Amino acid sequence: MPNLLAVFGATGQQGGSVVDYVLNDPDLSQRYKIRAITRDVNSDKAKQLGKKVEVVQGDVHDRASLETALTDAHTIFAMTTPSYAPDGLEVEYNDGKTIADVAVEKGAEYIIFSTLPPVREISGGKYTKLTPFDAKAKAEQYIRSLPIQSAFYSPGSFMENTQSLPLKPRQDPDGTWVVASPVSPKTQFPLINAAGDTGKFVGAILAEPDKYEGKTFCAATALYSLEEMIATMSKVTGKTIIYRQLELGDFKEQYAVLAAFIDLIVEVFSYYEQFGYYGPDSEKLVAWAAENARGKLSTFEEYLEAHPLQLT
User: Fold this and answer.
1) How far is CA 30 from the centre of its chain?
2) Among residues 30, 182, 197, 259, which is most buried (max CB within 10 A)?
3) pTM here?
């Protein structure tokens, strides 16, 4: 009898990728029965998903709904949504804690948690605004302390983010296409096709849960520098795209449309530049995860060919 796999975020990029991967894998589709968990079972995406798998309502702020959603679950793919409130770190951490506590209470045997690197710790306290990273890292440490098997999926920078500012090229008045930021063009991003490849990393854990118990997949195809990313954009679009490193004040002025998140963007890019996304061993960690992924990963060029940049 197949084990019940409960998937949070099933209508989104990460959870949706896990659902699709399991359904389409000849082995895993026999070993796991999927229960998709979503806040709104009446959304168009949830209704479409309901044609393929069981869909149930579950909200981290409604513990009773989680108790129902996780009843009989054997394995859980769990993820949390960032909170940008002043107490956002504690809000998101508590969301992760609630899922884990209910999972243990309901007798689940394995949690795969979507985590992120502990930026505050890696940077020695220099960068403190990246609460989505630190909240997930704190939840990961809590899950590791519980009497349940666990493994961790830590996605890199989404290739999907190049479809919007500040990584999406924009046109100068003279017609030149430009990507600009306050960091060096040598700054490296571990890129992942989140919707296409999340399932390949999580699928590896589902296929061999004992092998990967306690392990973290620093999930990306590879590390790409900004200049490599922009060269790839130029190649695929056939347009000349350049990188421009701006002074901090100029960047904030030119990207005023992003004012609500500009300090967060500056901090995350600066952290990548100075410490590396996963810290000093980023290259080794990404290489291990890519080698252990279950299936071929999308290169950035392949992603852009399948999802063309809309440059108008």
Assistant:
1) 26
2) 197
3) 0.97
